Structure formats: C-alpha cells, structure tokens
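Re: the 62-residue chain
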Amino acid sequence: MAAGRDLPHDLTQFTIEQPTPLKATLDAMYGRWLALGEGERLELEWTVHPLPILSARDRAKR
C-alpha cells in the first residue's frame, strides 16, 4: 500500500464507485484507514474462499 495516509488511487476509485457485495466491508476498511493515528498499522483478517477443484476436462478447456 501507499506510504502515509493516502490510499492508492485504484483502491479509492474501486471503493467509491463500484457497487459490490463487498461495499460495506470496503467502507468499514476505509473508515478504519482514516481513523489511524500516525505510525499505527491497519491489520486485516480477510476470509479466503478456495476455488473449486477443476476436473481434467475443465482444465483442458482453459
């Protein structure tokens, strides 16, 4: 991420303009970012959902 208190442009643009199922989560993250004091860290726990296992036939189509 960017140094200092500025969010990278692409993340800011995505957070503000894109209606996604993650909007509430991204808005909360942005609020936490803004509330950080000088030298504080923003630590996140992000749930990762594994991709489904592809069959050999599906892999061949890629």
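Residues 8-34 form one domain.
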